[in-house]
Amino acid sequence: MTQTPADTRQGLQFFGRISASVSHEIKNVFAVINEAAGLIEDFTLMAERGMPIDPERLKKAANSIQGQIRRGDGIVKNMNAFAHSTDEDVREIDLVDTLSLTVALTTRLADMKQVSLSMGECPPVSLRANAFDLMQLLHSFIAAALENLTAGDSLVMSVKPLEGGASFSLSVPGKDAPVVLETMLSFPSQAICANMELNESAGTCELRLSASQP
Fold first, then answer.
1. pLDDT at residue 106 greater than cutoff 80
2. Angle between helices 95-112 and 5-48 (to 10 degrees)
3. CA–CA separation, 197 vs 107, rounded Å?
4. CA–CA separation, 58 vs 52, rounded Å?
5. Radius of gyration, alpha carbons of the chain
């Protein structure tokens, strides 16, 4: 399918939203590291004045820095993988890995609504598709579901093989299937041959991809 200028604009807006979210996460990592480094500096000044230092407090500050470095490394790896999703128009992609990356990049949005976002059971499945368009669609699918959830809810996302294609599903444990307005999904739902269906018996809202991708 040929992309229109509007499609391109939506793609750029999606890339911008993810980039802004990642930059906020990295900024938060730096803030915590800066706070812990300041605490270590205070301990150093105390030592210079001959005051006793609690080793446990020093160890806690060092552990905090190491933990934030690991967190920052994970955030940067996710951003790097997201950036490489634009490398090829269509390729064979691991849908579980793609969903996991999308969930990781959307977690901050869920956190802002105080909703727990996680992965459910996901058997191995792959499909030839445009990775960037698929991530844009999955992100808008999750974002649309979050609109109708309340603080304290848990949103679970899964994927499984279906008739040569695949089915992504959203569920809210303990509640009915989440409501997702199709009008809130971005253009790739048409671009990558996806249809949305409500499976009330399973309590899921499903996004089904056909085996034949353009």
1. yes
2. 70
3. 24
4. 11
5. 21
